[in-house]
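REVIEWER CHECKLIST
Item 1: Sequence provided? yes
Item 2: Single chain? yes
Item 3: Sequence as submitted:
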Amino acid sequence: MREDLRAFWNTATAPAEGFRQRALAAPTLGAAVKGLLKFRTLPAFLGMALSYLSFTWAYGRITRMEGSAFDFLWANLPPTVDQEAVRASLQDALRNLPPQPPRAPVLFGLALLAPLGVLSLWLHDAVWDHACLWLLRGLKGRKSLRVSLAADAEALKVGTLGALVSLLGDVPGLGCLFGIVTFPVGVYFWILRGYALAAWHGCPPWKGVLATLLHAFLMGLFTFGILGLFLVMILQELRPG
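Item 4: Structure as written out by the authors:
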C-alpha cells in the first residue's frame, strides 16, 4: 500500500509523464477497475459515513434548538413577542420530526453502497470526459469509450490522495472550514483526469485538461438550468390569476 501511494504521489506531482508511463504499460480495463475499487472504496465509505454523521449532528442540534440560527432568532425577536411561547411552539413542531435511525444499520448499508458509488462516479466521469474530448477533437485514432474508461479508472486511483484529503471537508461541525482549504485540492485532482485522457488517447495534455473543465462547465450549466426551470414553474404557479 505504501509503495502504491508513493507511485500515486509521483504521478500526481508529474502527471504528464506519470500517466504517459502508465499508458505505455497498457493495463487492461479489468485490472484498472479492480485497482480502482481496491483504493477508492474505503475513502468513499469514509466520506459517506462522515457526511451521515455530520447530518445526524446537525439534525440533533436542530431538534434541541441549538446553534447560531436559533441564537440569532432569540436575540432578534421583537420585545412584544413572548419568547417562551415561541420556544414552546417550536418544540411542539420539532417533536413531530422522525427519530434518527440506529447508526449501525445505516453505516452497514453505506459500506455496501460504497463500491457502487465508486463505480457510478467512474462511469459518469468517463462518459462525460469522453464526450467533451470528442467535442474538442482530441480522440485522435483511438476513439473507443473503452480507452477513456481505462484512463479515468487510472486517474481516479491516483485521485485517492485527493479523496483522503477531502475527507476533512466531511468532519462534523468543522467540514465547512476544512472544505475551504481542501477545495483547491479537489479542483487539482479533477483536472488531473485530463492528463490521463491525453496519455491514453495520444492528444496534447491541454486538450485533456480542457475536456475536464468543459465537463464541469456543462454539468454546472445543466444543473443550474434545471433549477432555473423549476424556479420558473414555481413562480408561474404562485402568480395571481
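Item 5: Key structural point noted by reviewer: The chain has one domain: 2-238.
Item 6: Recommendation: ____
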